[in-house]
Every structure is written in structure tokens, then in C-alpha cells.
């Protein structure tokens, strides 16, 4: 077999591997996922594998720039669990800040290389290629990273390997942009917590599976709350002041719960909190803590001090009921809190 034939076989083998992965991508798009987020995660893993094949790398990962939290997070990392670093750090951060592909074949002598993951895992990084990803508006949204070139002792070649990796990076960019649109559609723009659509998405993907899990005994509780006499705030101080109150309340709610709890703006001045692994008594204690904080706080708006109170209804979610039926129970208790004087917590 001459060199030309060998090269042809190699090219055909590579092409078939690429086709296998793209077929997998197509098949994934035809599947009905439990949620859009779940579908995207599986696609990211296939795209990371596609990049690994395209440049013959040991590992590939796709990094999402979470501007809200000022973090860089791997959406899919072949060979590693999810990694999170501060924005602006490492080679990924540099690629995003410069808007240019970055390569190093001597990472341990590169000042921008973050070796902490290698120290924790024992992995040895020999070469890295990072390509920034932009959205349809030309804004940076993430990076595609390939680690350890396998078929060349000299490591990556910037121009040649960027050209090969561009296919996976391009498709990943489209997927990430879709992911970001989905996230934006599920988030309340004023308060920056999730909205009603985000609640239903989380209920179906996070809470309902736990409720219906065989042998699960950990309760999940819900708190429904709203701002007392909120219309009076708008009528007295104006709608901009009302918006400031809503933002203050949302921040207080979010700051009063655990990282695995959920906070949602249900609509208007009404909010929902979901507390996994919390019984009714624990939920009532959380609600009382929030009620006290809101009552004691002051919203400073354009030289005016505004005070508000809130009412709360607590319930434990039942796997035998729909989301709407569970909400109705908490809402009925909220109505009772409003009807019996407001600024209180009702749990029965």
C-alpha cells in the first residue's frame, strides 16, 4: 500500500467517524427529551466528541460564558466532570477577552494556563487549542477547547487545526445561542429570577422526578407569597418605585434560600419558592425568616424610603397532584394569610 492509498484510507475512516457522530446528532434531534436543557446537554457531548475526532485530540470541551455569574462553565467535557472558573482567567478567558484563537504546546510554561485541574486529577496537559465562539450579533458567548494532540508530537497547528475544529465550534455556537435564548425566555427580566415558564420547566425536570421516585421520602415544599398592598405602592410612588420594590423582594427571596432551592416570579407581585428536602415546618420557618427580613428592610428610591410587608402560604408537594393542584393548595393558604390580616405565614 503506497502513501497515497494509506492517506485515502485514513481520510475515509475519519470521514466515517464524523458521519457517525453527525448521524447521532441528527438522531438526538428527533428524540423527545425530558426537557430542552436535557436535549442540549446530550448534543453538547456529541459535539465535544466531534471536535475530538476532527483534530484527533485526547479531550475536548465547550465552555459557556455565564455573564450573569461572571463564570466560565463547561457544558460538555469529554473525560471530565463539569468545571467552573472565574471569567477572565485561564486560556479560555484570554481567548474570550481577545476574540482570537489561542494555542500552546508548552502549557506549563504558559502564564495563562491554569494547572489547578491537572493538580487535582493527575492529568498531564501537553497541548491546548482554544477557539472563541460568537453569537449572531457578533458577541462572545463561549469557547471550544481541544486538549492534547494525539498524532503529532509537536502538538497543535493553529491554522490547520482551527480550520478542522471550526465545524464543531460553529454548530456548538448555534446550540449555545439557542440554549441562551431558552434561558432568557425562562427568566424575568426585571428581577433576574426565573419566571412562570422557568417554574414549569424546573417542575417537570427537577421536582416531579424526585416526587415520583420510588422509595423517595424526602419532601419538597412550596411557598407562595406576594407583596401586601402593592397597588398602593404604585399609586403612591409610581411604577418605577414599584419595580424597585419588586427587585428588592426578589433579591431578598433569593438571598434567603439555598443554592438548590428555586425562586420564581409567578406574576405581578406574586412569587413562588420551591424547597427540595424541606418539610412543611421547615418551609414555614424559611417563610417566617423572609417575612421578618422584608418587614425590617427599607427600599431607598429617589430620596424616598419605602417599606412593605408580605404574606405567605406554605404547602408540601404531593406526587398524586398536578403542578397546578399543588400550587392551588399553597395559593389557598396565601389567600388565608391575606384574609386574616396580611404580613403572616399560613401553613395549614
CATH topology of the largest domain: Beta-Lactamase
CATH architectural designation of the largest domain: 2-Layer Sandwich
Task: Figure out the total of helices.
Answer: 10
Q: Which percent bin holds the helix content?
A: 40-55%
Number of strands: 13
User: CATH superfamily assignment of the largest domain?
Assistant: GAF domain
Number of domains: 2
Broad shape: elongated
CATH class of the largest domain: Alpha Beta
Let me know the average pLDDT.
88
By helix and strand content, what is the structural category?
alpha+beta
**What is the H/E string?**
HHEEEHEHEEHHEHHEEHEEEHE
Biggest sheet features = 6 strands, antiparallel
Beta-strand percentage range: 15-25%
Q: Which value, in Å, is the CA radius of gyration?
A: 25 Å
Q: Spatial order of the strands in the main sheet? A: 3-2-1-6-5-4
Distance between the termini: 81 Å
Low-confidence stretches: 1-9
Structure write-up:
The structure is a single chain. By secondary structure, this protein is α+β, with helices and mostly antiparallel strands. It has 2 domains: 3-185, 2-Layer Sandwich (Beta-Lactamase); 196-346, 2-Layer Sandwich (Alpha-Beta Plaits). It contains 10 helices and 13 strands. Helix 1 (3-30) packs antiparallel against helix 2. The chain is elongated and about 75 Å long.
Amino acid at each position: 500500500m503506497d502513501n497515497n492509498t494509506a492517506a485515502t484510507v485514513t481520510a475515509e475512516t475519519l470521514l466515517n467517524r464524523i458521519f457517525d457522530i453527525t448521524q447521532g446528532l441528527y438522531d438526538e434531534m428527533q428524540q423527545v427529551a425530558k426537557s430542552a436543557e436535557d436535549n442540549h446537554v446530550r448534543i453538547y457531548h456529541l459535539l465535544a466528541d466531534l471536535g475530538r475526532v476532527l483534530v484527533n485530540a485526547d479531550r475536548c470541551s465547550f465552555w459557556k460564558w455565564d455573564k450573569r455569574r461572571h463564570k466560565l462553565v463547561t457544558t460538555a467535557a469529554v473525560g471530565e466532570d463539569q468545571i467552573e472558573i472565574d471569567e477572565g482567567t485561564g486560556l479560555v478567558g484570554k481567548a474570550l477577552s481577545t476574540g482570537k484563537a489561542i494555542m500552546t504546546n508548552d502549557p506549563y510554561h504558559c502564564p495563562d494556563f491554569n494547572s489547578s485541574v491537572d493538580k487535582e486529577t493527575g492529568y498531564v496537559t501537553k497541548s491546548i487549542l482554544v477557539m472563541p465562539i460568537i453569537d449572531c450579533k457578533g458577541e462572545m458567548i463561549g469557547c471550544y477547547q481541544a486538549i492534547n494532540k494525539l498524532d503529532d508530537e509537536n502538538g497543535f497547528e493553529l491554522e490547520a487545526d482551527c480550520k478542522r475544529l471550526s465545524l464543531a465550534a460553529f454548530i456548538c455556537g448555534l446550540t449555545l445561542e439557542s440554549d441562551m435564548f431558552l434561558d432568557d425566555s425562562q427568566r424575568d427580566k426585571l428581577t433576574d429570577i426565573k419566571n412562570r415558564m422557568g417554574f414549569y420547566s424546573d417542575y417537570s425536570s427537577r421536582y416531579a422526578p424526585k416526587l415520583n421516585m420510588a422509595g423517595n421520602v424526602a419532601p419538597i415544599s412550596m411557598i407562595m407569597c406576594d407583596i401586601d398592598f402593592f397597588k398602593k405602592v404604585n399609586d403612591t410612588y409610581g411604577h418605577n418605585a414599584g419595580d424597585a420594590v419588586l427587585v428588592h423582594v426578589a433579591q431578598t427571596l433569593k438571598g434567603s434560600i439555598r443554592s438548590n432551592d428555586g425562586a420564581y416570579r409567578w406574576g405581578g407581585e406574586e412569587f413562588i419558592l420551591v424547597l427540595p428536602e424541606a418539610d412543611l415546618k421547615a418551609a414555614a420557618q424559611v417563610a417566617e425568616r423572609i417575612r421578618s427580613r422584608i418587614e425590617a428592610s427599607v427600599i431607598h428610591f429617589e430620596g424616598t424610603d419605602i417599606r412593605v410587608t408580605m404574606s405567605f402560604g406554605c404547602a408540601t408537594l404531593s406526587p398524586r397532584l398536578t403542578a397546578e393542584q399543588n400550587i392551588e393548595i399553597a395559593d389557598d393558604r396565601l389567600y388565608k394569610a391575606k384574609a386574616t390580616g396580611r404580613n403572616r405565614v399560613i401553613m395549614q
